[in-house]
User: Fold this.
Amino acid sequence: MGNIRATFRSQCDNSHAMDARFPLSNTESPWLPFESRRRARDEKREAVLRAAVQLFLEQGYHRATLNDVAKRLNITKPALYNYFRGKDEILFECWSIGHELVDDCIGETSAGGGSGLDKLRKLTIRYAELMTTDYGKSLVRFDLRDLSEHNRKIVQTAKRRIDRAFRDYIAIGIADGSVKPCDPKLAAFAIAGSLNWIGHWFQPGGELTGHAVAEEFAIRLTEGIATTSMRKKADKPPRKGNVGNASREDGSEHHARAAAGAAGQSKRARGRLR
Amino acid sequence: MGNIRATFRSQCDNSHAMDARFPLSNTESPWLPFESRRRARDEKREAVLRAAVQLFLEQGYHRATLNDVAKRLNITKPALYNYFRGKDEILFECWSIGHELVDDCIGETSAGGGSGLDKLRKLTIRYAELMTTDYGKSLVRFDLRDLSEHNRKIVQTAKRRIDRAFRDYIAIGIADGSVKPCDPKLAAFAIAGSLNWIGHWFQPGGELTGHAVAEEFAIRLTEGIATTSMRKKADKPPRKGNVGNASREDGSEHHARAAAGAAGQSKRARGRLR
DNA sequence: ACTATTTGTTACCCATGGGTAATATACGGG
DNA sequence: CCCGTATATTACCCATGGGTAACAAATAGT
Assistant:
C-alpha cells in the first residue's frame, strides 16, 4: 500500500510541485491497520474485564489480586496497566458493562408497547436473566465504596435511574388500571430486591437455567400487584441464548456497544490511555 | 455487713482451731465479685461488637480497620485482642448475634399457631424488621469468605436453616390450603430476596420506620401466593420498640441470650479467652 | 533492514493494616 | 503491703498487594 512518505519522495524525484497533502496512490487507507490494532487492543481489554469480573465474583474484590487476574490471562500484573489505570477502574468498567446491559433492557422495554404491567413484566424477565450473568451480578455484588469518588457518583446516579424505571412502570400500571393501587416506591423495592438477590444465589451450573428463573420470578413478583390474574402460563420452551457474557462470545458486540452512549458518563471505548 | 477478713480474725482471737475453709459468716459469696468482673467484661465485649458492626456496615469490612474500631471505643487496637482472637472473629460474632435474633423469630413463629400462610407472614414481618437493624444487616451485608473455614461452615449451615424455615412454611401453607400451589424453593427465594435486600437500602433516619416497611412487605410479598386476599389492612398504630440494637439498650439482654444455645455451634458466652 | 510505538517483563517501592512482644497500670484478694 | 491477674499501652514486625521504573521483545510502517 502506498504511504505518504513514498508518494512524497516520488513527487520530488519527478520535480513536480504537487502538494504532498494529495497523495496519488490511495488504494488502501493507512487507517485500516490502525483500526485493526485498536480493535485487537479492545479485545484484550475486554478479555481483562471478563477475567476480572469472574475473579471478583469468585473471590470478592478485595481478595482477588491483580496478580490473580493477570495470571488467569497468562500475563503479568504490570501489563494490565496498559489497559487500565488501576484496580478500581477495572471494577468500574465491569460495573459499567453491566449497566449498559440494564440500560438496554430499560430502553427496549420503554420503547415497546403494552400496559404498565406488561412493561413491568418485560423488564422483570430481562433483568432477572441479566442477574444470572457475570456482568449482571456486578451490579449488585460489588461495593460502591471501592470506586473513586467520581465513578461512585456515576454509578449512584445510574442506579437511581434503574430504580426509577421500576417505579415508573408501576405508576403507569396504576394509572392505566393494570396494577393494583400501591406505593410504587415500596413495590419497586420489593420486586427489585428479589431480582437483585438472584445475583447472590444463582449458580450457572445448578438445576435451574437463568431463563427458567426469570420466567418464574416474572410471574411470582407481579401476580401480587396485578389486577388480571394471568394464569395462562405460556409454556414456550426456554430460549437457548444467554444474555450478557455468553452472547458476547459470538461476535455480536454491537449489543453492548449500542447503548454505550446512553449509559451516562460511562467512558468506555475512550480508546488508548497514553 | 461483716466482711470475711473481720470474721476470720475474730475466730483466731478465740483460739479455735476452726478451718478457714469453712467461714462462719457467708452472707456474701466471694463469687459475686468474680461474677461482676465477668459481666463487666462481657459488657465491654458487646460494646466492641456494637462499634465493630457499625463500622463494618458504614465502611465495609475491609476498609474498616481495627484501629478505627478501637478509636471509636477510646482504646487502642491491641486492647481488642483481650476480647477477640482477631478481626474475622469479631465479624463472626457480629454475624452470630444477628443469627440468634433470626433464630428467635423462627422459633417463636414455629411455636405459635396458625396456618402456613400465617406463619409465613409472621416470620416475614419479624425478619423484615430485623433487616432494618445493624445486626440484622450483618446477615446479608457481610461476606462469608472473610470468615475462617470453621466459622464459614457454621454460618452456611445456619443460613440454610433460615432458608428452610421459609420453604417449610410455604410447603405447610400449600398443604393446608392457605397458600397457592407453587415451587416452595423459588417462592422462598423471592420472598427472602426482597427481605434481605432491605438490609442494603434501609437507612434508619429515612422517611420510613422499620416497622412500617415490615408491615408493608409482609402484605406485598405474601398477597401473590395467598389463597385468601387479606384486604382488611389492620390499621393498628406502629409499635414503638425496635428489635435488635435498640432493645438491647434497655437491659433486657435475655432476648438475645435465650436462643444462644439454639444458634448452632455459636460459641458466644464462652467466657474469657485465656 | 531500520525505527518508533506498543506491549510485555523483571525487579522494585512502600503504604497499609493485622497481629505480637514487652511493658505499665489498676485492682481485687490475702 | 504485697502479689497475681486483667487490662491497657507503646513500639514493633511483616506479609500483602497496589502501583511504578527500567528495560526487553514484538510489530507495523517506511
